[in-house]
């Protein structure tokens, strides 16, 4: 039977190193080799319902949810697929980014890059920091 070694996964939030205070830097490593480094800012605009002042009608409000600089991170390096997952406010908000490796030919020969293939944002409207008086 072939022995399988588990790769050592490591994630790091390097937001303090970004020259742009609006952006965060996130790194995913495997066996001390960086497979993903992402620098970006994000704000999510989510509509939600609240009771109108007559407590009969529902009206729509808007939550502006910024990506927190203190977000918890998880990551996974794969041969052709990698992931970065960020969560904040006790996992009330989670952003999961999936990447696919793409190869292409250049004048210097074959090269590979990572392409963002999926974005998933989940949120809990019972968390009141951004969803004030939300009707569930």
Largest sheet, strands/sense/barrel: 4 strands, antiparallel
Q: Name the shape in a single word.
A: elongated
What's the total helix number? 0
What string gives the helices and strands in order?
Answer: EEEEEEEEE
Whole-number count of domains: 1
Q: What's the overall average pLDDT, rounded?
A: 88
Strand content: over 45%
Q: Order of strands across the biggest sheet?
A: 6-7-8-9
How many angstroms separate the termini? 53 Å
Structural class category: mainly beta
Give the helix level as a range of percent.
under 10%
Strand segment tally: 9
Low-confidence parts: 1-6
Q: For the CA atoms, what is the radius of gyration?
A: 19 Å
Family: Belongs to the LAMP family.
Subcellular location: Cell projection, Dendrite; Cell projection, Growth cone membrane; Cytoplasmic vesicle, Secretory vesicle, Synaptic vesicle membrane; Early endosome membrane
Keywords: Cell membrane, Cell projection, Cytoplasmic vesicle, Endosome, Glycoprotein, Membrane, Signal, Synapse, Transmembrane, Transmembrane helix
Membrane topology: Single-pass type I membrane protein
């Amino acid at each position: 039977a072939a022995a399988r070694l588990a790769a050592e996964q490591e994630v790091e939030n390097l937001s303090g190193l970004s020259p742009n205070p609006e952006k965060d830097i996130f790194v995913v490593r495997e066996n001390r080799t960086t497979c993903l480094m992402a620098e970006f800012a994000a704000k999510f605009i989510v509509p939600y319902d609240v009771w109108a002042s007559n407590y009969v009608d529902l009206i729509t409000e808007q939550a502006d949810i910024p990506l927190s600089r203190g977000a918890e991170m998880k990551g996974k390096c794969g041969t052709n697929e990698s992931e970065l997952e960020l969560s904040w406010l006790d996992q009330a908000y989670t952003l999961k980014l999936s990447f696919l490796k793409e190869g292409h030919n250049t004048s210097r020969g074959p090269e590979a890059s990572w392409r963002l293939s999926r974005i998933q944002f989940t949120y809990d409207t019972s968390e009141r920091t951004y969803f004030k008086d939300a009707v569930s």
